[in-house]
């Protein structure tokens, strides 16, 4: 289920968007503390952000810039400030689309669905996994974080994919090895240890220390 974060201080508009999206089985959350948008963004890990320009404390351009420092998540600006200058600025700041207020909910929904489809669908499946600002690209086995990008070996990639698909769950070494045996490379217990060690070093070099945790007697996990 796609998670959508709504950053809109007009609660009538925010609730209208929320109700519309919920009817189509999207999971939504609305920001209420407008000084803490990034905190809520990181905690919620949305697949899409709906962002107003005129907000309390800091405007939408500020928050778009802050989000772009840690994530490539798609952002749709939604604002009555829909002159050409603001539309161009929204795109240049990192926005992916712009919806002018007032808007028709059917057009709003169509734009949301189109952007989600373009971003996440490839052969009907999501081709990235995002967690706490790091983005694992399933199509080319690369990992991105804070504007840095690295390539992972086949085994490193598969191990991280398994753990990110099971956030908060300890995955046994046996389960991981079984998943890796399904590919064309055999991996035993010692090889798994070596690959996990190398993966942890690559993560640490990117500023992602202690991401892959060892749970004694259980296996590995990402929280």
UniProtKB/TrEMBL annotation:
Q: Name one GO biological process term.
A: regulation of DNA-templated transcription
| A single GO molecular function term of this UniProt record | phosphorelay response regulator activity
What residue range is the signal peptide?
none
Question: Which ranges does the entry annotate as DNA-binding region?
Answer: 126-223
Name a single GO cellular component: protein-DNA complex
Q: What is this protein called?
A: Stage 0 sporulation protein A homolog
Source species? Desulforamulus aquiferis
Function (record text): May play the central regulatory role in sporulation. It may be an element of the effector pathway responsible for the activation of sporulation genes in response to nutritional stress. Spo0A may act in concert with spo0H (a sigma factor) to control the expression of some genes that are critical to the sporulation process.
What phylogenetic lineage does the species belong to?
Bacteria, Bacillati, Bacillota, Clostridia, Eubacteriales
Chain ranges of the Response regulatory domain: 3-116
């Amino acid at each position: 289920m796609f998670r959508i974060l709504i950053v809109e201080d007009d609660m009538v508009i925010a609730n209208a968007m929320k109700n519309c999206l919920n009817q189509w089985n999207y999971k939504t959350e609305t920001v209420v503390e407008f000084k803490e948008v990034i905190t809520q963004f990181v905690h919620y890990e949305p697949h899409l952000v709906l962002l107003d320009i005129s907000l309390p404390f800091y405007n939408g351009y500020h928050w778009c810039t802050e989000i772009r420092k840690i994530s490539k998540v798609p952002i749709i600006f939604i604002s009555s400030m829909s002159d050409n200058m603001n539309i161009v600025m929204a795109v240049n700041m990192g926005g992916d689309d712009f919806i002018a207020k007032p808007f028709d909910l059917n057009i709003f929904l169509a734009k949301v669905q189109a952007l989600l489809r373009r971003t996440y669908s490839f052969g009907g499946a999501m081709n990235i996994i995002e967690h706490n600002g790091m983005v694992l690209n399933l199509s080319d086995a690369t990992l991105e974080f804070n504007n840095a990008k690295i390539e992972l070996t086949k085994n490193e990639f598969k191990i991280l994919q398994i753990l990110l698909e099971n956030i908060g769950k300890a995955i046994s070494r046996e389960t991981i090895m079984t998943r890796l045996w399904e590919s064309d490379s055999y991996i035993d217990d010692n090889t798994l240890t070596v690959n996990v060690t190398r993966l942890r070093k690559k993560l640490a070099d990117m500023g992602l220390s202690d991401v892959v945790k060892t749970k004694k007697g259980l296996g590995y996990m990402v929280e």
